[in-house]
Design a protein that fits this description.
Shape of chain A: globular
Order of helices and strands of chain A: EEHEHEHEHEHH
Distance between the termini of chain B: 60 Å
Mean pLDDT of chain A: 83
Order of helices and strands of chain B: HEEHEEEEHEHHH
Largest sheet of chain A: 4 strands, parallel
Radius of gyration of chain B: 23 Å
Structural class of chain B: alpha/beta
Strand content of chain A: 5-15%
Low-confidence stretches of chain B: none
Number of helices of chain B: 6
Structural class of chain A: alpha/beta
Strand order of the largest sheet of chain A: 3-4-5-6
Oligomer: heterodimer
Strand order of the largest sheet of chain B: 1-2-5-4-3
Mean pLDDT of chain B: 84
């Protein structure tokens, strides 16, 4: 996976020599499709905490998410293109988030908004998922606690860039991942444990009883 | 007064209640206790262990098994009328010698009184972590007692539906607010995630339960009319 280099010849061409009144345009099909997809992403807001407040500010008139083709919030995952997970996700919500992601039709993307959704943030405790990428695949992480609307908009622009670089010949990004039937996890258990190892000060505050 | 019936409006102050006032210059310990504490001592001799006044608020430590009876009396007696239960919770101290305290916050709206009842549950392994439920007196105790059970593992005898409320029902790592519970839980992150994803909330909460059909009779008149006219319920 990852980004391929941006194709250089993406511009639509008009042939001026075709005579007055008649002209033609040539472009690559996936350029056209990607252009359409990137400009009309419908977000599914999965707001669980303060990040959702900042997300609402992004959608409101001052920052105006509609400028990027995200006019309509899709509160049903079945009509959504982008899952924006804004806020911390407790373990109790993990099956819900997984189900919402599975209900979204391809092509679909995911933005993890804020420190908690991306890594558990300061909630390194028994109740909070340490990064939603342990539950569902994530395309763009937006850092911040919470991120400013500019930060989220930058993340959305990055996602649009990613959408524009997809090639129709490579369908690997659109393959639906099946979780491991035994554990229900996408990534190996050892990787999850390693990723969510405590760091910094929090090393000293746990698993010691009193 | 005699002959004129006293009309009691729920939640309003009794005629002889003190005027509302903001307390000032409260001592940390001591000071006048809530008169209900003495009334409890008189009524339930021996069941009141001790009374403490901290920052002007009265805490009464009571016998574990007498609690239900005392709360019932505090609620019913015309001289007390504690008609509002504002909290049920528990406290565990870092000192393992100190018992777990279960705390009830009662408020008497007519007499403008606040009373804190506490039950000590020593962690000696002999006392069961069980107290009487006050659900029979205050229906609002239902979820508060469930939360207290979920977080501390204290059982409330007589509660109609004592199961976890904050953690999911299959959760079996323990009781998270207990001092012997590690902050990150007992299992590894992957194991916690695996169990959470396997919880399958739909097994208990079916779509049939969530339809509006069962609650139809309880809906407002205007909404019933709209639904009868064929409006979709959004299922």
């Amino acid at each position: 996976m990852g980004l391929t280099a941006r194709p250089s010849d993406n511009l639509a061409r008009q042939d001026p020599s075709a005579g007055a009144g008649e002209s033609w345009v040539a472009t690559r099909l996936d350029f056209l499709v990607n252009w359409g997809r990137a400009g009309s992403l419908w977000p599914m807001p999965f707001g669980t905490a303060c990040c959702a407040i900042e997300f609402m500010a992004t959608a409101a008139s001052r920052f105006d998410l509609a400028r990027f083709g995200m006019e309509r919030m899709s509160f049903s995952p079945r009509q959504a293109d982008v899952l924006i997970c804004a806020g911390r996700v407790p373990f109790k919500l993990a099956p819900v988030l997984r189900r919402i992601w599975q209900q979204m039709p391809q092509p679909k993307w995911c933005i993890s908004m804020g420190a908690c959704a991306s890594s558990g943030g300061m909630f390194d405790n028994y109740a909070v998922v340490q990064g939603i990428d342990t539950i569902i695949p994530v395309d763009v992480y937006v850092p911040g606690c919470p991120p400013r609307p500019e930060g989220l908009l930058y993340g959305i622009l990055m996602l649009q860039e990613k959408v524009k670089r997809e090639r129709m010949s490579d369908t690997s990004l659109r393959n639906e991942m099946d979780p491991d039937p035994k554990s229900g996890l996408y990534i190996p258990a050892q990787a999850i444990d390693e990723l969510s190892e405590p760091f910094g000060n929090s090393v000293h505050q746990t698993r010691s009883g009193l | 007064m005699s002959g004129t019936p006293i009309v009691v409006i729920p939640g309003s102050a009794a005629p002889d209640a003190p005027a509302p006032a903001t307390p000032r210059h409260l001592p940390n310990r001591g000071g006048p206790a809530n008169p209900s504490a003495d009334a409890l001592k008189a009524k339930f001799a021996g069941a009141v262990q001790r009374v403490e006044v901290i920052w002007g608020e009265t805490s009464v430590y009571v016998e574990r098994l007498k609690l239900g009876e005392m709360v019932q009396w505090l609620h019913d007696d015309p001289s007390q009328r504690y008609d509002y239960l504002s909290d049920v919770t528990a406290v565990e101290y870092r000192d393992p010698e100190q018992p777990i305290e279960v705390v009830w916050h009662l408020r008497s709206l007519p007499y403008r009184r606040f009373l804190r009842l506490k039950v000590d549950l020593p962690l000696d392994g002999k006392t069961p972590l069980e107290v009487p439920s006050v659900w029979g007196v205050y229906k609002g105790a239902d979820w508060m007692e469930r939360e207290c059970y979920d977080m501390f593992g204290i059982r409330f005898a007589g509660h109609p539906d004592l199961r976890r409320i904050l953690m999911w029902e299959q959760y079996h790592e323990g009781f998270p607010l207990r001092k012997d519970f590690p902050l990150r839980g007992r299992f590894s992150r992957a194991e916690q995630l695996r169990q959470a994803l396997a919880a399958n909330p739909e097994a208990r909460y079916s779509m049939e339960e969530l339809t509006v059909a069962q609650a139809f009779e309880d809906l407002p008149e205007a909404m019933r009319k709209r639904l009868l006219g064929g409006e979709r319920t959004g299922e």
